[in-house]
Amino acid sequence: MNINRMFLILLSLVLVVGIIGCVKNFTHDILSYKIKSNREIDLFIAADPHHLSKETYDDGPAFDTFLNTGDGKLLNYSGEILDAFTMDIQNRKPDIVVFAGDLTCNGERESHLELAEKLRTIKRSGTHVFVIPGNHDIENPWARNYIGDELIRIDSITSDEFVDIYSQFGYKDAISRDSDSLSYLATPSEDIWLLMLDSAKYDRNKVRDGPEMGGVLSGKTLNWIEQCGELARENNAKLVAIMHHSLLDHSPIVNENYTIENNDEAIEVLQNSGIEIILTGHVHLQDIKSHDAGGNTIYDIATSCLIAHPNQYGTLRFVPGKGFYYQTNRVNMDNWARENDTSDSNLKDFHEYSRTFFQKRSYDRYYDSLLEIGGYTDMEMQAISETIAILNLGYFGGFRNDALHHIFNTDGFKLLIESSPNFIRDYALSMFNDEKTDNNKIFIPINLNRDSTETHSGFAN
Ligand SMILES: [Fe+2]
Q1: What's the gap in Å between 212 CA and the centre of ligand 1?
Q2: Domain at 31-336, CATH homologous superfamily
Q3: Where are the chain's structural domains?
Q4: How far apart are CA 228 and CA 445, in angstroms?
Q5: 8 C-alpha to center of ligand 1: Å?
Q6: I need a surface site. Which of 2, 140, 163, 206 has the fewest CB within 10 A?
Q7: How far apart are the first and last CA of the chain?
Q8: Over the stretch 5-28, which tens digit does the pLDDT of each residue have?
Q9: How far is the centre of ligand 1, averaged over its atoms, from the C-alpha of 241 (Å)?
């Protein structure tokens, strides 16, 4: 063996040891990116698909009551909506699709297995799929069969089973996994890495009557995030985070158990790790909030629930040298209904059906709340509930401020304004004093001061 060859072997060894040393618990070859640098990347995000397998219910009163006392989710059509979303993906061919938790209704094993099958269909069409759990997905004590007028408790899944069922959708190819949660780091492309954060608190669900609704990023997870941030920086990659719970409050009124409990600390760590965008779900609201610190801004973009009106998902396009374009898109149910030649009138006129269902569920819930608050006549409660139900159609769909001014002339709104302060009045008024009027789109330019990397320098902003 000549000297040159020995030198080359030694050099390779030094490089290998160097890479292993620097990636620590980063297990896979970080250079095997599927999407090369300087390419536009299309990422779709679906939040809260809450899939419920049709194997778990029949057309009896138990399921009917469950469906018609909920928050407007079309659990009875979750499979069809997911199939229509899959058709959209097959037609539009995004590079990546992420599911930001609450994959299932109440963590039923059957629903998870069916959803994984649907994700395999998406993956076969050439789109990378990544998932994280939400508060409904693991060890959920609410998992039920709805048979006749009976509710029968059924199996949910453990966190190990979650990883097993969704191994192809992030866990198997993760270059690093957090030891304290089901968070992982995915590197589908050279320019954009995905920090998939598990904020759900399911450890004690087994001994509870219902799933823990709130979320957190533990101290250990935050340390791991810092390591991911360093690794991304060393590799000139931009980190985009995905998490189920909110990082920033999406409403001044409704935020407890929606925003993670240690968000001040988490915001600092995420910002220090170079993260400017976090895509979330959980609140079922379409809403964008931002937070500034030291000249850097972080955006929490909450995409509304896929199976509730207006049945939309988020699309995030990364354009090298420019930035990120986020906008929402409604699931094309008409296309699905036509292709499948459905005879179901709800699916044939889906958006009208979904809107009416959501509006009625809002109306009933707020009427019940007003009954509890007390002091209103029946006519007044009807008028206010009607107003809130119309407001909620716009609000959950991402509209605020001037975009909701059409409600001002209704009797219900006038009654609310004249009311003494209560939760419903505060909630309605908060819609008119919000950060953005239309939360269905935003352009976030690349922060060139911050990302003066080889990848991005040389491009005009
Ligand atoms: Fe949730």
Answers
A1: 10
A2: Metallo-dependent phosphatases (3.60.21.10)
A3: 31-336
A4: 22
A5: 53
A6: 2
A7: 52
A8: 655 555 554 444 444 334 445 655
A9: 17
